[in-house]
Design a protein that fits this description.
15 helices
Length: about 450
């Protein structure tokens, strides 16, 4: 058995304790991200004109697409790092970090260089009013300079999670989001810098986070003695393997983004009340995803460790534990939405037309956590094992053979058809990933 000595594969309590020890800080980190979004919206929502809020919303959406698209820097790095930890390969731990940072720098340089065509294309597709477009351009022109730090932070977060150093991940995200929130109030509310202040707050916060990440990494590297092997940046086979892993994650993420974009576009055709109600419903979905993502990231670290240590029995135990807790947490969310959904609706909107529609949609809100949990947890499991090609393939199946056909066949159901297709898409992700895991991946393992 090659797993580190601190892993007790015969102790179920120990595994559950380790799982939650990893998951809780990651869940708290996700909550800080949600709080930042609320503050960004709040400070701009109180400026003198809706175009300020619209500009930040559009600019933020563009960066969400960019950052989601390149989130493979975190996901791929965590899986590779976790496997190096399982093998107790100190040199690989350093090489994974070096390659991820180098890739983040190259990508961010390209995005900065292409900033004008990126924002021109985004505004052409969204087609906002001139006042909103002007604010969005101002926001984008400043925040784009946060990209080098933001993408490097993605790589650093993945590296920390892969080592199961979740405290470093928590400290990093808490610093970034706390600095951002404080600067939001100072620059926007205090100094009156408007949209530009919101963007500048993000730039400063990301670079502050990168400074902390580098200090934490420097301390952590003392546990992995060795030298920096710069030749890995010129090793074609190593670079090809890295890019192949990231390529599959990139395609998978683009497909997922496509589903959300298509969902929003179709909702827009059904009227303003539907758009508003769906926005509230999606907040329910995202709230549950914060917790489930934390569990998925914990699974990433433990699965990667098991794969790197070539311990099949431990891998199967980790998968069972992750799925068990994921199903339990998703059930708790479903019960909470069933019991308190109407009360939450009253907190989130006072528009009677929207509230009435939300009451009709409440069953979908209850179904969302329990139908999407397997997709979330298996995302973490597959990432930890770097089975990214299979992730991409199951996403292709769920989007093109389930989601789009279901949407097409249920258009007569209006908004209920949209949610039925989305729920079936989430179920398909869980079912296909479970099938591939049991029938293809686990039987093929050579340990």
């Amino acid at each position: 058995m090659l797993l580190p000595s601190f892993v007790n594969v015969d102790n179920k309590t120990s595994l559950n304790r380790r799982f939650w020890g990893l998951a809780v800080p990651l869940i708290l980190s996700n909550i800080s991200v949600a709080l930042l979004g609320l503050v960004d919206t709040g400070v701009t929502g109180h400026l003198d004109g809706a175009h300020f809020l619209g500009g930040v919303a559009i600019g933020g959406t563009v960066f969400s697409f960019l950052y989601w698209g390149f989130n493979f820097l975190r996901m791929g790095t965590s899986g590779l790092c976790a496997q190096a930890l399982g093998r107790q390969d100190n040199q690989a731990m350093r090489s994974v970090l070096l390659q991820a940072i180098a890739l983040a720098v190259v990508i961010s340089a390209l995005l900065v260089a292409l900033q004008q065509p990126i924002i021109d294309l985004a505004l052409a597709l969204i087609a906002p009013s001139e006042a909103v477009a002007q604010q969005a351009r101002g926001y984008f022109a400043i925040r784009i300079w946060a990209t080098p730090a933001a993408l490097c932070n993605f790589a650093m977060l993945g590296w920390f999670v892969g080592q199961q150093n979740v405290r470093a991940s928590l400290y990093l995200l808490l610093l970034i989001n706390s600095v951002n929130i404080l600067l939001d109030f100072w620059l926007v509310v205090g100094l009156g810098w408007g949209v530009e202040g919101v963007a500048l707050a993000s730039v400063i916060a990301e670079f502050a986070g990168l400074s902390l990440a580098l200090m934490l990494a420097s301390t952590r590297l003392k546990r992995y003695p060795g030298q920096w092997d710069w030749s890995v940046l010129r090793n074609r086979s190593a670079i090809a393997a890295l890019l192949q892993t990231h390529q599959h994650l990139f395609v998978r993420t683009l497909l997922l983004l496509g589903v959300f974009t298509f969902f929003t576009a179709q909702a827009a055709r059904l009227g303003d009340a539907v758009i508003a109600a769906n926005a509230v419903m999606m907040n329910f979905y995202l709230l549950a995803s914060f917790a489930l993502d934390g569990l998925a990231h914990a699974a990433e670290a433990l699965v990667g460790e098991a794969v790197g240590g070539k311990n099949g029995a431990y891998l199967r135990r980790v998968i069972r534990v992750a799925l068990f807790w994921g199903v339990l947490v998703s059930a708790l969310f479903a019960i909470a939405y069933l019991a308190g959904g109407r009360w939450l609706y009253q907190l989130m909107t006072d528009l009677s037309q929207v509230r009435d529609l939300l009451v009709l949609l409440l069953p979908w809100a209850v179904l969302l956590p329990i139908t999407s949990v397997h997709g979330f947890i298996y995302d973490g499991i597959y990432t930890g094992g770097t089975w990214t090609r299979q992730m991409r393939s199951t996403m292709f199946f769920s989007v093109f053979l389930v989601y789009l056909p279901c949407w097409y066949l249920t258009q007569s159901m209006a908004v209920h058809g949209l949610w039925l297709a989305f729920v079936l898409f989430n179920i398909s992700r869980g079912v296909t990933m479970s099938w591939v895991m049991r029938r293809r991946i686990l039987p093929a393992l050579e340990f």
